[in-house]
Design goal:
With 158 residues, chain A is mainly α. Chain A contains seven helices and no strands. Chain A has two domains: 76 residues, NADH-ubiquinone/plastoquinone oxidoreductase chain 6, subunit NuoJ (Four Helix Bundle (Hemerythrin (Met), subunit A), Up-down Bundle); 41 residues. The termini of chain A are far apart. Classes of the chains: A mainly alpha (158), B mainly alpha (105).
């Protein structure tokens, strides 16, 4: 079951990059997010799964579709083929190295120790209080940036 | 392994590496600005999967808190990026990143 879900995530993420039609690409990205949310549920992380499905597969995809409807669904940008081959070779060598690092278990050791059985709410509100402050700040920063960009667009009379 | 508690831990580490590969390839090889944001999204997905699979099962509450923080930041970055793309399209009529090479300092 795990392998099917992980294959689904990889397959639809790949389709999101290689499909010509931007709208289809974004829908593939959404399906990939849904598969990832199901994986989170399977790994006993229901809150992360709910956020992944509702926010990433829902809200972000609405924003993408809105942008595509304003800019045109067809990908008219011409991609240089030679650059793609170099990028492919560079990234495949990097990923072999990354796979080795991930397989060494270093990530598991890097995560901060929490003396479980703390509940998720306790960790979020007591241990990671500063994260909450950071999240609120990031949301405000995002709103202000959006307002500034929209205002700048209106001033230019477009 | 990413996590010894997962019987199929190698699959998770392979998936994370593959997703990062797809995202970085998209960032390097593509010129469409919407596709660049899609590449960023895919890398972010890989990082979330890495955190959750690395923490399973003993540190899963901490991992969920971290993943939620990552998702909130991801939403703000994407919304800002898409607003910039719309503005750039209104200014120049194109979403090709090469059209904006004159912005280099």
């Amino acid at each position: 079951m795990d392998i099917l879900l992980l294959s689904g995530v990889m397959l639809f993420a790949g389709l999101a990059v290689f499909l010509k039609d931007l709208l289809k690409a974004v829908i593939c990205l959404m399906v990939s997010s849904i598969f990832l949310g199901i994986i989170f549920f399977k790994l006993s992380a229901p809150y992360a799964g709910v956020f992944e499905i509702s926010v990433v597969a829902g809200l972000i995809m609405v924003l993408f579709i809105l942008t595509i409807s304003l800019t045109g669904p067809e990908d008219t940008v011409v991609e240089p083929a030679s650059m793609g081959i170099f990028a492919f070779l560079f990234v495949i060598f990097s990923c072999v190295a990354l796979f080795k690092i991930l397989n060494s278990g270093v990530i598991h050791q890097c995560l901060p120790l929490s003396s479980e059985p703390h509940g998720f709410g306790e960790v979020l509100w007591l241990s990671r209080t500063f994260d909450m402050v950071g999240q609120i700040s990031v949301i405000f920063a995002g709103v202000f940036v959006l307002l500034a960009i929209v205002k700048a667009g209106r001033k230019n009379g477009k | 392994m990413v996590n010894e508690a997962l019987g199929s831990g190698w699959m998770y580490s392979y998936s994370v590496a593959a997703l990062i590969f797809i995202g970085v390839y998209c960032l390097i090889a593509r010129r469409n600005m919407v596709r660049l944001l899609i590449g960023l999204e895919i890398i972010s997905k890989a990082i979330c999967l890495l955190i959750i699979s690395g923490a399973y099962p003993h540190k899963i509450a901490m991992a969920q808190a971290l993943v939620i923080t990552v998702i909130v930041i991801e939403v703000c970055v994407t919304a800002t990026g898409l607003a910039l793309i719309i503005n750039a399209y209104r200014q120049s009529g194109s979403i090709d990143i090469r059209e904006f090479s004159n912005l280099r300092g």
